[in-house]
Amino acid sequence: MYVISILGNSVILFMIKTDPSLHEPMYIFLSMLGATDLGLLIATIPTILGIFLFNSREISFDACFAQLFFIHLFQCIESSVLLLMAFDRFIAIREPLRYASILTLPRIAKIGLVCMLRGVAVILPLPLLLKRFRYCRANILSHSYCLHVDVMKMACSDIRVNIIYGLFTKLLTMGLDSLLIFLSYIMILRIVLSIASNVECLRALNTCVSHLCAVLIFYTPDIFLSVIYRFGKNSFPLLQSLLGYICLLIPPLLNPIVYSVKSKHLRARIIRVFVK
């Protein structure tokens, strides 16, 4: 899964970078999604592959704090990118003639920088809050990598601040982003349903299928994992571990496949390169 995910996202990034015909807003956002997925894979590789290949089952606290920072950071950025892609689809359907003039490359770069800065500002307090705790319980993680909620519960101190801030972080990032994505698609549906031609209506909706698949792949496992962590942690340990792997490994694996299958232009460029 790691090899396929890294190769798939690397091919997508290489094609978009080297092919001028793919320097459009939709593909720029797709390259941002691919770069974020690669960052998420790189952040988890040291511990997951260390356990499976070298039976290395220990990690220092500082390395653990660094890993959880980058995992949560890239998840936050990916959520932001999915929101930007929903906004991209809304602009493309509502203002097709002004699409390229609204989403210019400098404007996309500024929006991407804002998303990155938002992620750093929101996620950076998590490891800083964890470092001030004293840990005296059995330091055994539930996953093969470090997560804030997992490390937090090993502390012997009062963790109410971390619980409140962790919930605030979730609501401010993925909660807010998913709500705005939902509202974006409500507006897209209103525009599409006002189109007289059924053919044009279906064509417009078809441009959103890839993004909808990416949204479901990213948010669905995370929602179930959050519910289990808060309401059924001791009841479903196997399901919790399985969903943890799905949250981190399935989106980087499936996103390149979904977009390559649904985007004829991108698929044709990839086939042309490999056929040559």
TrEMBL record:
SMART domains: 7TM_GPCR_Srsx (SM01381). The keyword Membrane applies. GO terms for biological process: cellular response to lipid. It holds the Pfam family 7tm_4. Its main location: membrane. It is a multi-pass membrane protein. One of its GO terms (cellular component) is plasma membrane. Keywords: G-protein coupled receptor, Membrane, Olfaction, Receptor, Sensory transduction, Transducer, Transmembrane, Transmembrane helix. PROSITE patterns: G_PROTEIN_RECEP_F1_1, G_PROTEIN_RECEP_F1_2. It is found in: Membrane. The chain crosses the membrane at residues 27-53, 65-87, 108-130, 178-196, 208-230, 242-261. InterPro entries: GPCR_Rhodpsn (IPR000276), GPCR_Rhodpsn_7TM (IPR017452), Olfact_rcpt (IPR000725), OR51/52/56-like (IPR050402). GO terms for molecular function: G protein-coupled receptor activity; olfactory receptor activity. It comes from the Eukaryota. Residues 8-259 form the G-protein coupled receptors family 1 profile domain. This is Olfactory receptor 51G2. It comes from Chelonia mydas (Green sea-turtle). The lineage of its organism: Eukaryota, Metazoa, Chordata, Craniata, Vertebrata.
